[in-house]
Write a structure and sequence with these properties.
The complex is a heterodimer of chains A (about 450) and B (about 500).
Chain A lengths: L17 E12 L8 E12 L3 E5 L6 H8 L7 E6 L2 E2 L5 H10 E4 L3 H4 L6 H11 L5 H14 L16 H13 L5 E5 L7 H18 L2 E5 L3 H7 L2 E6 L2 E7 H6 L4 H8 L6 H5 L37 H19 L4 H9 L4 H12 L6 H15 L3 H12 L2 H4 L5 E4 L2 E3 L11 H4 L6
Parallel strand pairs in A: 3-8, 3-9, 6-7, 7-8
Antiparallel strand pairs in A: 1-2, 1-4, 4-5, 9-10, 10-12, 11-12
Helix pairs in contact in A: 4-5, 4-6, 5-6, 6-7, 12-14, 12-16, 14-15, 15-16
Chain B lengths: L18 H7 L2 H16 L1 H27 L6 H16 L14 E2 L6 E2 L7 H34 L6 H10 L2 H18 L1 H4 L4 H6 L5 E6 L4 E6 H7 L14 E2 L5 E2 L11 H37 L1 H16 L2 H11 L4 H4 L4 H28 L2 H8 L4 H37 L11 H8 L9 H28 L1 H4 L15
Classes of the chains: A alpha/beta (about 450), B mainly alpha (about 500).
Bound molecules: iron/sulfur cluster (SF4).
The site of iron/sulfur cluster has 13 residues of chain A, from loops.
């Protein structure tokens, strides 16, 4: 990535220098004594420039909230670093760390749960000032009122309790509290989710105005892509704890590079008839990431996945094979039932299961005998309660680059990167495969 | 943003003003309330001050021992205690409206079947006493109500916020019949403890502690004249000793013209009501001190372990569980036996030791009761928000966690207080713990236990029923507070727990 920021108009002084830099960040949630460790953020690189709004999109559960929390120091990274203004956050301690906490802030997704309903609005907004011994108490009171003014709340509301406010007003209180210490950076986690359209526009405009007024840097998390398109200068697409594509918002929305971005954008009920008519279907749901993928994180669900040259099969057959692989993955993830475990120990397959699987996978297709044999062998492993073996077997038989190698950063335009093998010379581009090039 | 900019008529246009400024602007309601309160306090100032001073003296003695024990040096507090005792005596000397001096019930007939002299307006002692007791209880409820009224005046006229979440809880409690019943019982118990010296038909000093140093004047039917005898002699003659022996039952007079609302105890024949009223003070002292200790420990453990979780929580669980596995009564017996003869056991006739032992052994139960709510509030996003802007953990615990568990503390604390009262009584029943001459309800039960099936049934039955009533009262109060805090538990059956918001991202 180069440092220059294209033709974007400068919003504030110092724009263009890096404020936050995240390198190979890993955040894991311990699953307790029995559960597996969840890799919420898994090897993520990111750079946020001073004064910009970086949009972050992705399905829920992909680690967006965890990333926000890590950026404001609420999560302890398992490895990797977050640098703020050049200094690794982990190196700050004591008074220095406390001071830094005033430089970053977060607006939480759940405005109801992030405001203590036992305290009136004025006290909630004043808390950061108290925590940092900001000037004198009289100045703090004055500042609270200025903040309420700034977020468009009547100053008389400071004696009211959050339960008596509307959802939009609570959101504004959360914003006022986040801005109390004049932070340089604010992580906005779904700032307008759950709000009515009119209220949503008000809050978004407020956020834009505040950014202009105070020169704020935003990380804007939203699953509503129109919000990101409206506010963000650059956008990053997140999947399973890592960034798949990033670039200037307009370019990224107009001409997506990564297959996953294509999928996300195709789901917007856009005004153009072309984009609404052919939504790209996405199989399965993002599983809780408990293991590091050996290849592309999106492999397995990718509609543009590269097929190995060894077999020349039609799409219908590939779809069934993908389904079988999905079943094997699914069975690896969940703990086996007692019956399955006993069957696996005794080395006997449950005949009914094998027949079911065969029916589901092979019904209506007629693969070549060699492929048919591989499928049968995999089903036998599954029915005998050996899903891990079935998985390995299927990967060896039907896997490709997508399963084996982590895609590199491919420059796909000015200031743009995408992590997909299909950007390599030898493959067709994702756009071509998905029938969406030429926009 | 409906109404975000509309001027709101209920809101103070200038929220900056302090409470004093707001009172100054509209002094009427505050002045009216304050005048009544001043009168109420003034008429009983002596009794209230005396009750307060006796509590202060116990606390000073306890602290002195604790500090002395910690530093290894004795803390010379005898002077302070003597001064406190003097102050209490002085306070008791202040004439109060509802005292035995104003409405005396002790007197004697001047002739057989003749009129009474020495009693209030020449009333029969039973009537004079009943009048005084009724007035005292009425006064207690009045002062309680007036304090509540004060809160309402503040809320209506002086509070800056027109609504707080507490208002709803209060309203819910006011509609809770069972909780109100509990409140009434608890107020009765508190009033009995606070006004014990004025409430009883005679004083603990005259009847229980030093009966031989006081005289009783009575009309001697045999001699046909007014005579005088030491109280101890009179007591011996009016004991309740079960089948075949003498007996003075509830609501009856003895041969010395003394009225015994609850009858008398077995030889040496003390007055049961006086004994129980004074015992209420002891019970209250033990209960409050034990729950104070248990509550402080429970809150500290709950907040710290819920905030930090992980190893800290585990350590707290291990510590709490080890204390909980101890057989409680056995430990109490052991402690009571160990401290026999120890200077600490002399404070309040051993009540202090009992309170300390109960507090130290009971906190894990209270902690376990408030652990769930503590963990619940520690998991709320506002705790993360506080952490994100760098609030000190102690401040977060105090401002954001303690208020959320305070209600539960009150609920389980009041319920557990009943258990503490029963344990104290149980120790006394075993002749351990609070020692004579300091009265304790459990000892009354122990004394009367052999006579339960005789004409002297009242000796054990009345204190037993009272303990049950008081314990039930505290439990009912706890129930009411819980339902007020948490209306969902009251209507729990079949109501699905509201789904929490999505955890996207
Ligand atoms: S690398 Fe393969 S699986 Fe991953 S996005 Fe590209 S085509 Fe799809």
């Amino acid at each position: 990535m180069s440092e220059s920021d294209g033709g974007e108009a400068s919003v504030s002084a110092g724009r263009g220098e890096t404020l936050i830099e995240v390198s190979d960040l890993q955040v894991r949630y311990d699953g307790g004594w029995t559960g597996p460790t969840v890799r919420a953020v898994d090897g993520l690189d990111l750079r946020i420039e001073r004064g910009e709004t970086l949009g972050l999109v992705g399905e829920s559960g992909c680690g967006k909230t965890t990333l926000c929390r890590a950026l404001v120091g609420l999560e302890r990274p398992a490895s990797g670093a977050v640098r703020f203004d050049g200094t690794p956050v982990a190196d700050r301690s004591g008074a220095d760390r406390r001071r830094w906490r005033g430089d970053v802030a977060m607006v939480f997704q759940d405005a109801d749960a992030s405001l203590d309903d036992r305290l009136p609005v004025g006290e909630l907004v004043r808390e950061p000032l108290d925590a940092h011994d900001w000037k004198r108490p009289a100045d703090r009171r004055e500042r609270v009122r200025d903040l309420l003014d700034a977020v468009g709340l009547d100053r008389a509301w400071e004696r009211r309790y959050p339960t008596r406010l509307s959802a939009g007003q609570r959101r504004r209180v959360g914003v006022a509290r986040a801005l109390a210490l004049r932070p340089a950076f604010v992580a906005l986690d779904e700032p307008v989710s759950g709000l009515d359209a009119s209220v949503r526009a008000g809050v978004l405009n407020l956020l834009a105005d505040l950014q202009d007024e105070f020169g704020l840097t935003y990380l804007l998390v939203a699953h509503d892509l129109s919000v990101v398109r409206h506010l963000a200068d650059r956008t990053a697409v997140m999947y399973r704890g890592t960034i798949l594509e990033r670039g200037p918002t307009e370019a990224l929305f107009a001409d997506p590079a990564h297959p996953y971005t294509h999928v996300l954008l195709s789901a917007i009920p856009g005004p153009e008839p072309s984009s609404s008519s052919d939504r790209i279907p996405l199989r399965g749901s993002p599983a809780t990431p408990t293991e590091q993928p050996s290849g592309c994180p999106f492999a397995g669900r990718c509609p543009a996945a590269i097929r190995p040259d060894a077999h020349a099969l039609d799409d219908g057959t590939w779809e069934r094979i993908d389904r079988l692989r999905e079943i094997a993955r699914e069975r690896c993830r969940r703990a086996p039932s007692l019956r399955e475990r006993a069957a696996s120990i005794l080395g006997i397959g449950t005949g009914a299961d094998a027949a079911d699987l065969r029916g589901a996978v092979l019904d209506g297709i007629d693969p070549p005998p060699a492929v048919r044999e591989e499928i049968d062998a995999a089903i036998d492993h599954l029915a005998a309660g050996r899903p891990a073996q079935a998985r390995r077997f299927l990967r060896a038989a039907f896997g490709s680059e997508c399963d084996r190698e982590r895609p590199a950063d491919h420059a796909v335009g000015e200031e743009r990167e995408s992590h997909c093998h299909r950007h390599r010379e030898e493959f067709d581009s994702p756009g071509d495969v998905l029938g969406r090039s030429g926009e | 943003m409906t109404g975000a900019h509309d001027p709101d008529p209920d809101l103070d246009p200038n929220p900056d003003t302090s409470l004093t400024a707001r009172v100054r602007r509209d002094p009427g309601p505050a002045a009216r309330w304050g005048a009544v309160m001043a009168v109420l306090v003034a008429v009983e100032a002596g009794a209230l001050a005396a009750a307060l001073l006796s509590v202060v003296a116990s606390v000073v003695a306890a602290l002195a021992w604790l500090v002395g024990g910690a530093t290894g040096a004795g803390v010379p507090v005898e002077g302070v205690l003597a001064a406190l005792d003097g102050a209490r005596a002085a306070a008791e000397a202040v004439p109060t409206l509802l005292s035995r001096e104003t409405i005396p019930n002790q007197g004697h007939r001047t002739a057989a079947g003749g009129p009474w002299t020495g009693t209030f307006l020449g009333l029969e002692p039973a009537h004079a006493w009943a009048l005084r007791a009724a007035l005292i209880y009425a006064y207690a409820f009045l002062i309680g109500y007036w304090l509540f009224r004060g809160y309402l005046v503040f809320r209506r006229h002086y509070r800056a916020a027109e609504w707080t979440p507490r208002d709803d809880r209060l309203d819910r409690f006011r509609d809770h019949g069972w909780g109100r019943f509990g409140l009434v019982v608890v107020v009765l118990f508190l009033a009995t403890a606070a006004f014990a010296p004025a409430l009883a038909p005679t004083t603990p000093e005259r009847n229980l502690v030093a009966p031989c140093q006081h005289q009783v004047t009575y009309y001697d039917e045999a001699a046909g004249s007014v005579a005088s005898t030491p109280v101890c002699t009179a007591n011996l003659e009016s004991a309740s000793n079960g089948a075949g022996g003498p007996n003075v039952g509830p609501l009856s007079y003895d041969d010395y013209g003394r009225f015994h609302p609850f009858g008398t105890l077995p030889t040496p024949g003390k007055d049961l009501f006086t004994f129980l009223a004074a015992g209420a003070r002891v019970s209250l002292f033990v209960g409050l001190l034990a729950m104070g200790i248990a509550g402080t420990l429970a809150v500290a453990f709950a907040l710290v372990s819920a905030y930090y979780r992980g190893p800290v929580d585990l350590a707290a669980v291990v510590a709490g569980d080890s204390v909980m596995t101890l057989p409680s009564l056995l430990v109490l017996i052991l402690v009571a036996a160990t401290f026999e003869g120890h200077p600490l056991a002399e404070v309040y006739s051993g009540a202090l030791v009992v309170a300390l032992a109960l507090g130290v052994t009971r906190w894990p139960f209270l902690w376990r009761a408030i652990r769930g709510p503590s963990l619940g509030v520690a998991g709320r996003t506002w705790i993360d928000a506080a952490r994100s802007f760098g609030q000190h953990p102690a401040t977060t615990m105090r401002r954001h966690m303690l208020p959320a568990i305070a209600g539960y503390l009150l609920v389980y604390g009041s319920m557990m207080l009943g258990g503490v009262l029963v344990a104290t009584a149980a120790l006394s029943f075993l002749n351990l713990g609070v020692q004579p001459p300091t009265p304790e309800w459990g000892r009354a039960i122990s004394l009367g236990e052999p006579y339960v099936a005789t004409q002297s049934w009242h000796v054990a039955t009345i204190p037993g029923v009272l303990i049950t009533l008081v314990v039930t009262g505290f439990n009912a109060l706890g129930d009411g507070v819980r339902d007020a805090l948490d209306p969902h538990t009251a209507a729990e059956s079949g109501v699905a727990v509201a789904a929490t918001g999505g955890d996207g991202g």
